[in-house]
Amino acid sequence: MNSPPLPSLLGVFAHPDDESLLAGGVLAQHHAAGARTGVVTATWAPDSRRAPELAAALAVLGAGPPRLLGYGDARIPESAPGESRLVDAPLDEAIGRLVAHIRAFRPEVVVTHDALGQLTGHPDHVRTHQITVLAVATAGLEPFYPEAGAPWQPSALYAATHSETGVSRLGALLERVGKSVLTVPDAYVTTTVDVSPWAGVKWAAILAHQGEVARERPLPGILARLPEAERNEIISTESFTRLTPGPVAGHPCRLLA
């Protein structure tokens, strides 16, 4: 019996490289199966230094061109000169920008950060989670943001996350460079995906973010300094919490609408 086709998938993440680190495996998996995939990135301007790296990573993953909300990174003012930082932007404005992307792409599934802000609790991650939850809730309702296109309601929203028992090796690496490690209870993980068949593609996408790979404290740089076997073990599993309409347990090897 043939497996059902994988759903179209739109990732919404705060920074260039978040898409590859947190969901590069499922993006590659869905693309390989013929599903439409895309990524919206909340911060950094189209002409910023990280934009070409983002474009290269998305090309590796098969996720199309960059889709940028255009806000500034909370900690890097030059990321989007003349624009508000994401954390300072009016909530309604940011939701409207994302709703326009959701309605244009029409994904069956949306994936974003968890409520903790992904291990280190970066404020841009937290804000992106909040904006995405509200955008998914309103994208299908015609009275909201009529200028953003025809309504479209995704079938499911997932948050990429890390559980208490599933983060041990990665957590130790982050603590070694002075970063905090925020995790969710194991019961919060509803879907765990073995992405080892696409680990090579995922790693190539991470490497496309060359500026972060060259630095010591960002996760791409930490991973680049590991032995290949240890790195592959870390990047070959991705965990998610299904937020709507649930959470309910997902299929062990794919994200389903």
3D structure, described in words:
The structure is a single chain. This protein has helices at residues 18-32, 51-61, 91-105, 123-138, 168-176, 199-207, 210-213, 219-224, 228-235; strands spanning 9-13, 37-43, 67-71, 109-113, 156-161, 191-194, 237-244. With 257 residues, it is of the alpha/beta class. α1 runs parallel beside α2 (51-61) and α2 (51-61) packs antiparallel against α6. The longest helix is centred in the middle third of the chain and has 16 residues, at 123-138. It starts with 8 loop residues before the first strand and ends in a 13-residue tail after the last strand. The protein has a 7-stranded mixed sheet, with helices on both faces. It has 9 helices and 7 strands.
In DSSP terms (H or I, runs of 4 or more residues), the helix count works out at: 9
Strand content: 15-25%
What spatial form do the alpha-carbon principal axes imply? Answer: globular
Could you say which structural class the secondary elements and strand pairing correspond to? alpha/beta
Spatial strand sequence of the major β-sheet: 3-2-1-4-5-7-6
Helical percent range? 25-40%
Low-confidence stretches: 246-253
How many beta-strand elements? 7
Note the run of SSEs as H and E. EHEHEHEHEHEHHHHE
The overall pLDDT, averaged over residues, is 93
Oligomer classification: single chain
Over all CA atoms, what is the radius of gyration? 17 Å
The termini sit apart by: 20 Å
Largest sheet: 7 strands, mixed
